[in-house]
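Hello, quick one for you while I still have it in my head. Could you read through the record and tell me how the tokens relate to the sequence? No rush at all, and the record is pasted right below.
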Amino acid sequence: MTAGKRSLTTAAVALVCAVTVLGAPGMAHASQAKPNPTPSPSTTDSTGSADSTDSTDSTGATTASTEELEAVRKKLDRLYHDAAVATDAYNAAEEKTERQSAEIVELAREIVKGKERLEKLKDLMGAAARAQYRGGGLPPEVRLWLSENPQDFLDSADRVRQGQLASKGVLAEMERTQQDLELYAKDASTQWKKLEANRKARAEAKKEIKKRIAAAEELESQLEQEERERLAELEQQAARKAQTAWLGSGVLDEISGKASEEGRKAVKFATDQIGKPYEWGAEGPGTYDCSGLTSQAWSFAGKGIPRTSQEQWKRLDRVDVKDMRPGDLIIYNADASHVAMYIGDGAIVHSPRPGRTVTIAGAGSMPILGVVRPDA
């Protein structure tokens, strides 16, 4: 092997074992496969069986066997899958943080308005008290006896009663305002605690994302160039195999839905982003994660949808795969950790994972959980 380079057999495969504790079982993310390719033949030996032995490159270095590279591929899939799950958690916490920050600001405004109203009510009560004081505060029968015109006194008494009723109304309004202020303050305190909890969750998710991606990048860095090329081919073969099986089920024969006007706009926006890099937590315009791409595409089409793939799966209307049409969103993996947009003819556009760009792939190249329709 060339100087300064460790072979995959002695290093990268060992690293697979070393990072096993980081990975949880999960499904593979998409490679940049075409919608309906033909799987390329595997290398066979003279007996016709697949080559599983180490090979030697032009420098005499021993490279990994197909089985070893397949183990690396599966480990990378798990690491990137876990990074995607953590990204969804980060995005959800980010969305909640923004919403709660806005609620706290609104509550603060209500508290300010309530305090201003309370001050005005206190001024009114003070004015009423001063008016009563200036009226002399004599008993009604005495004021009636002193009055030259009994009708004037009766009119005056009516005004007194009205003033008393008004004072009671002001007092009641002051009490309600004070209760509102206490409630606003309590709500603001609750929202602040939630905000802090979501900030902590966001920070933890960010650490998890970086840890998983770093482990994947470290694993890939141990590969020789020839091994990385073979690994990429294994990823494409896995995607082609899954897509071929999906198409072989005859599902495409049943899919004939036409895109809505909003769906066409969403598809155009998403496909216009092809070639832009994946970045976790990104919503454009230069980079996207998987749900950042789909949510922004539908926002462009005039329809706001949830930010994360898991919330898109929970809250959008579901349709059968056979009924899907361009613009619909396909949710992947049992934990709804990945999302792509169906564009027709058995193909999707999506932002796959770190190190990849927005691309077109086969709709069946990953395990489909279900389909949702933003404009149902």
Summary: Residues 1-60, 141-146 have pLDDT under 50 and may be disordered.
